[in-house]
Here is the input.
Amino acid sequence: MCPEQVQPTQRGPITPGDRPPRLGRVPLLDNTLSMLRDPLGFYDRVGAMDADVVGYNVARTTGYFLTHPDLVEEVLVTNEGDYEKGRLLRDTLGEFIGKGLFLLEGEEWQRQRTALQPAFYRERIATYGETMTDFTAETAAGWDDGERFDLLPEMQSLTLRILGKTLLDINVERTAATLEPLLDSLRTRTDPSSLSAYVPLDVPTPSNRRVKRTRAAFEATLDDVIAERQAEAAETREARDDVLSLLLSLDEETMDRERLGHQLLTFLVAGHDTTALTLTYAWFLLGNNPERQRRLHEELDETLGDDDPTPADLFELPYLDSVLTEVLRLYPPAFTTFRQPTRPVTLGGYDIEADAQLTIPQWLVHRDERWYDDPDAFRPERWTDEFEAELPDYAYYPFGGGPRHCIGMRFARMEAKLAIATLAQRFRFEAVTEPPLNLAMRITLSPTDPVRVRVHERD
Here is the structure.
């Protein structure tokens, strides 16, 4: 179905006082059990309904799914001042990153976003290109022809090294030793298929105790990193321009120790885990679609020859750009966006109460057949200029949208494209893991099982 043939946002007549459709005859029981048993399946049930606003009740949360691009844009852009990140995110992640850029609100968010923005200017990001390519080449040098391995750990190691050098300029090996256990414990605790996701952190469950233990170890490492950077600054009196230095340069009122820790954890999670997942899904899809991988190799060979890519080369690699765009459509690591209205609002013709939880799922909108032919298929070639011109603006939003869009979007896209191109210059990836993937909706959209490939050196 072409974009111009869509149905309107309101799929039937709505009269004042109507309530959005809900899943299950007894929503609280049905929705909670469904979310515990199969979160992704619960989302897909919503996607199968003939409605753009769907109510739900899970545990103590009452809310609404919004699945039409017009509604996504209304909440994230047009009337964004009427919404905040909301209670669900604060209850789940607030103690860890509540004072980081992701969850801050109002003037404090604006002040810190403005302070950090220089680290993400296009010109500044371009200077990171050589580091991204060099680290990727080093990763590839550690692989043997015909070797079989799990993609995600390899990609996590790569993206953490890149992040550590480019944005934070820290000893990434030491940081990783305490960061990865913390991230793993947080993934377990935030998995909606686990009861731990609905239990306050103060309750001494095994999951909560592990989170607190790994957090303490990470905080100790962070204290050492901060102390070393401060000592260096006092001795040399030379200012660096990485994110850590920018954070440390802010006054105590703006950036105390708790805020600093939350900001760094935000960047470490968002800056390496999401890109590692994107690269994992990219090679999973390319490995299972050899004709598309062949087309990518042809473009790289024609444009680069035997050279590694640079940021300037990316403008001459349109198919590579389409590959990444399609990967992020099918498997957006940020699989959903949450908002909460600060006052009563009307969305899609329905009256929505203040403080309701709004779930705005990339996972569903990106796979809606109203906007995408054969929406579950990996087809990079769909991303023509004509298709993009007809596509509603918020039928695709892997990095969120509006003023709160991901500050690292350009960084992440450049890193992913340079990494894909550098690896594709050296190897052909053969899929060992075949679709469908088993996925978990944790902090990010993550595979539950190893995603294995076999690499073959290119002649």
The CA atoms of residues 32 and 58 lie 5 Å apart. The longest helix spans residues 206-236. Confidence is low (pLDDT under 50) at residues 1-10.
